[in-house]
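Thread: Newbie trying to understand structure tokens

Hi all, I'm a second-year student working on a class project, and my supervisor (Dr. K.) asked me to get a predicted structure for one chain before our next meeting. I've only ever worked with sequences, so writing a 3D structure as a token string is new to me. If someone could post the tokens and maybe explain what I'm looking at, I'd be very grateful. Here's the chain:
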Amino acid sequence: MKITNTYACWALALVSAAMGMMPSSSAAGDLSVRWPVERKKVVSFGWEWNAISPSEFVKYADRIDQTGLDGVGVYVKAKGPDGKSRSSANVADGEVEWTHKMVEDQIADFRTAMAHKGLKESFIRALGSPHQRLDWADDVVWGKVARSMGTLAWLAKEGGFRGLMIDPEDYHKAKQFCRRPGDEPWHVLAPLARKRGREVFSAVFREYPEAVIFAYWFFSWNIHQAYSDEPMVSARCGGDLWSAFVNGMLDVIPPTARLVDGNEWAYENEASRYEFMHSAIAQRNCADGLVAPENRMKYRAQVLPGFGLYLDSYTNDKTNSAGKANHYYFGPDASGSRTGHFARNLSAALRASGGYVWLWGEKFSWINYDPEQVMGWHVSREHWETRLPGLSAAVRACANPSEFLMKDFPALRTGGAIVDLAEELDVAAMSAKALGKEHDPKNDAQEGSGYFHIGDERAIPGSQYVVVVDGHGEGLDAIAYWLGRKDGGYWRWRVPGQGIALKELGGGRRHGEAVITVPEGVDGLKVQFRLHPDPGTTCGFDKVFLGKIDFAKPGL
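---
Reply by user tm_fold:
Sure, no problem. This is what the structure looks like when written as tokens:
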């Protein structure tokens, strides 16, 4: 097989051309203009980042750029008036009030580090459940928490972070967001919790109106209550105060801010069971039963569904040390690759998400640290990449296909991890033959138009393919169709396909590229290339590449 740089050049040409495609605001509603779609992001919130200082983030930023990540969760450390070092993760304790003076010397380093592509979507770890329960009626302590959160929001904006990350999980058994026996009645506490949500996030949004607030759970935490016929009655029965607190956030959220519901329950979601899409629908269409009526339009417009993936599940043994089945275990996919299984779930999670998927990892590290570096809690210096070969390439393939095609594609093709399934085809001749077809009403083809297919009739659900297309002229179209065999043995269309955008590069040239994942319930792939030129014009496909990514390939 002769290997050339052609496909890498295609990817570079596309990115260069795309830089000039941003529409003006006056054309924002014009369907004749191609406006960009924001790429969905993958961020890491593992223990690894707990011990990294601002200057160390600058030091390691180039290495983080190579991971395929878009950002991380940063634990900010600062000394209070008593001289003790504290973490931003514990700001809800209310012990000290975080001030600008405590953190302002970190801004320059954070701004330098967060300008890197692997850190642009980073978040400061902020509000969590306190070690000791705060009195909902204590104006003094809640004022201190609100002002401290305002300081962290200020640092986030000045330091180039996307926003703040919060976590309501009750690690310290304080029951902050739940009514306890002996407390004031729920109908007294819930309005107080909503008031505190307003106060705390008024301070946040005053400092950073464009902030993204990322939570491991928003309303997904109480999704079992959302499924009730009367969600708020169910919430009251369970003593839930978190929904009231989040409604306070929604009371004061500006139109420029967003909330991301990270839905940590998704650790056990499987693409093969369509659970990511099901979870997204539940967040969109069920959880708003926990939202106050006056906040529902904000909720639908400004709260984005997200998902957490637990990396350790893809490296854990099938049984634990006691010989029992491991609760968090995702084994190899049909090709024998655990990285492939991860990619399958990541792809499904990104498709269903509103913008972000987060990865939680405990045992290993994303980058190679210097020997003197102090590591985070229980984190090994061994790389995730050694346990999950091809992990960074898989993240790029799912979340950033353009970067994958530029960075990974040429080497993976040379090494045999991506094989061209269309190498022997004469695409120009197939285009000419398709244009010569007679009118076929069954396939809705105009005379002088036509189509041809290439594909893989042995495609495995969850497997990923690269499609790269070059052509010329107006009137080209390409779409991937997923096929399933009926009992009779013939092909039939089963689920909606995936379009491949053919963008104009100038001089009549067209280019398209995509990384596509085979969905569940199908057992074949065909990519249809369609030609429908205007009268008196010509068009055609010049080069076509269809290749399957083999995540089980050694050395990927």
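A couple of things are worth pointing out once you decode it. The longest strand covers residues 476-485. The CA atoms of residues 139 and 196 lie 9 Å apart. Feel free to ask follow-ups in this thread.
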